[in-house]
Design a protein that fits this description.
The protein has helices at residues 95-100, 125-137, 147-167, 188-197, 221-230, 254-257, 280-290, 312-315, 339-343, 369-387, 431-461, 492-501, 514-519, 539-550; strands at 26-27, 36-37, 113-114, 181-185, 208-212, 233-237, 262-268, 296-300, 319-322, 333-337, 465-468, 481-486, 504-505, 507-509, 528-532. It has a 7-stranded mixed β-sheet, sandwiched between helices. A 4-stranded antiparallel β-sheet has the order 11-12-15-14, with helices on one face. A two-stranded antiparallel sheet has the order 1-2. It is an alpha/beta fold. Helix 2 runs antiparallel to helix 10 (369-387) and helix 3 packs across helix 10 (369-387).
């Protein structure tokens, strides 16, 4: 199922090819069933170090910190063409090997099963190591020209390139490319608010702003306030009569509410409560066909990004956001803008910064340098997952030392850098690796999702709960984020307390989906119970949750 890398080509001047099959098996050892999933991924990559003029540093034990080189002020040593190590060949990591990359899933968990991942994923040890290393060795300002500053500058620039690759940004020079930039910030909520404010001079009375209600308030409130400030008409895109999150047709469908006056559409790719995957390409096509010329579509991808590979250029979106801290990285937000979309607005950074200088014009006060170091390592984890290879450290104590072994903190340091800041830089993370990694994640999640949905759909059918969102367990329909309302006198607090007593971490609340809960007739003050899984969870953890629920829903 995860054969995404088979069609991918290496970046830069890569010409030579290597193809191999990799099989990943996820086995569900539940009382009810056993599921096995195969994942195949192939790629062809031999990459040259791209044209760069800045330095970064890397210890031989952890190449993830320097996945990307950059374009700053010092020359990188030319080490010639390099074959990417572990070219998606051999067997990918087993589930126990994957879990060993995450300290919080071993001894750090204290025996808890962490099934509240929609609020934020755990991070591999290499990501934490990268933050520590940067702060101890390169914690200086950018662009000053001395080695420490060159390294910091390279780290920030590399982080932007890593995120571009993860989001699927295709340059204009390539077929299907819309170009564009990635803007990093404190959070997706902050970036959405900043983006909406940039449209203050773009819309006014007579214009329409369409806002999708089945999402997180981060991509709703800013557009509501934009309409209030400018006098534009706010048009709600509501859930369908069958409970579908993002209907395209019918009275509530997007195609029914778009008009030639529509200037902006703000939508959610996956609801962080429903788990349903919306058809973004179809929504984009509808906007291009029916809305005003030059209308923009801004998509919240926060709940999609941890589970599937983003492909912003392929989808044709104007803006797309996600949160790296929910995708095995640091607490920050990322916003993609196509070249044309960014050119139509002006960022809020200082007046003397060129309006065309994106992302700088949109990154008010700059970005967190240490978080950028962590983003580079986050990309390294995706490479590790895709190829089964790599080096580093920061294991979780379940045996072995994390990425590449080593057991300790995983040196992400600057020991290989010269006084000028020169360094040998490994090839960039490739799109093939990203697609392969997320294909493997989807395959690992599929049996867990089946196990979870079989149980909760059964409770729904028996009238014990009200399951919101699709009842299907298909990967094509949903991600493993499941929410429900207990019935028959049981409360969300009862359910969560029972899970916590069994050391299973879940939660209740509105998860900032207040407007959608109101539409569903659910008290947003109480909210719902949410269970959310990622590829590193296990069938045994899901079974532990099910056993904990037996005390709340006896006989169900």
């Amino acid at each position: 199922a995860a054969a995404a890398a088979a069609d991918a080509a290496a970046s830069g001047a890569a010409d030579s090819a290597a193809t191999a099959d990799a099989e990943a098996a996820a086995t569900a050892a539940t009382a009810a069933a056993t599921a096995t999933t195969d994942a195949a991924a192939a790629t062809a990559t031999t990459a040259d170090t791209p044209d760069e003029t800045s330095a970064s540093s890397s210890s031989p034990s952890n190449p993830y910190y320097t996945l990307y080189s950059s374009s700053s002020k010092s020359a990188v040593k030319d080490s010639g063409p390099q074959q990417r190590s572990g070219a998606i060949a051999g067997s990918p990591l087993s589930l126990p090997e994957i879990r060993r990359e995450f300290p919080a899933l071993g001894d750090g968990a204290g025996g808890w099963a962490l099934l509240e991942n929609a609020g934020g994923s755990q991070v591999p040890g290499c990501v934490a190591d990268a933050v520590r290393d940067h702060m101890l060795r390169s914690y200086v300002q950018l662009g000053a020209g001395y080695p420490h500053s060159n390294r910091a500058t390279a780290t920030v620039e590399r982080a932007h390139e890593v995120v571009k690759t993860i989001m699927g940004v295709v340059p204009e020079s390539e077929v299907g490319g819309a170009g564009g930039e990635v803007i990093l910030g404190a959070s997706t909520s902050a970036l959405c608010a900043m983006l909406a404010a940039c449209f203050d001079t773009q819309v006014g009375p007579g214009d329409e702003v369409v806002v999708h209600r089945a999402g997180h308030e981060a991509n709703i409130g800013p557009w509501v306030r934009l309409a209030e400030r400018t006098g534009a008409t706010l048009v709600w895109w509501r859930m369908g009569p069958e409970g579908d999150a993002a209907p395209l047709t019918g009275p509530e469908g997007l195609r029914s509410i778009l008009t030639p006056n529509t200037k902006i559409v703000a939508m959610c790719h996956v609801s962080n409560l429903l788990g349903e995957v919306a058809d973004v390409p179809a929504a984009v096509a509808a906007v291009r066909e029916l809305a005003a010329p030059g209308a923009r579509i801004a998509v919240d991808g926060v709940a999609f990004a941890p589970h599937r590979a983003m492909a912003v250029s392929e989808w044709g979106v104007d803006f797309y956001t996600f949160s790296p801290y929910k995708v095995y990285g640091p607490h920050m937000g990322a916003l993609y803008g196509s070249k044309a979309a960014l050119a139509s607005i002006t960022g809020p950074n200082h007046f003397f910064i060129d309006p065309k200088d994106a992302p700088y014009k949109f990154e008010v006060g700059g970005v967190s340098h240490e978080a950028c170091a962590a983003v580079c390592a986050m990309g390294g984890y995706l490479r590790r997952l895709a190829t089964g290879g790599g080096g580093g450290g920061g294991g979780n104590g379940e045996g072995g030392g994390g990425i590449g072994g080593g057991g300790g903190g995983g040196d992400t340091g600057n020991t290989q850098v010269s006084q000028q800041g020169d360094v040998d830089v490994p090839p960039p993370l490739t799109r093939a690796e990203v697609e392969a990694a997320f294909g493997i994640m989807a395959d690992l999640e599929a049996p867990l999702q089946e196990q979870l949905m079989t149980y909760f759909a059964g409770l729904d059918a028996k009238g014990a709960i009200r399951l919101i969102g699709p009842k299907s367990a298909s990967n094509a329909v949903r991600v493993p984020t499941v929410s429900f309302l207990p019935l028959n006198g049981k409360t969300t607090a009862d359910v969560v307390a029972a899970a916590h007593a069994a050391q299973v971490a879940i939660r209740d609340g509105n998860m900032y989906g207040v407007r959608m809960l109101e539409d569903l007739g659910i008290d947003a003050g109480t909210g719902v119970v949410r269970v959310s899984l990622l590829h590193y969870n296990t069938p045994e953890e899901v079974e532990r949750l099910i056993q904990a629920m037996a005390g709340i829903f006896p006989g169900a």
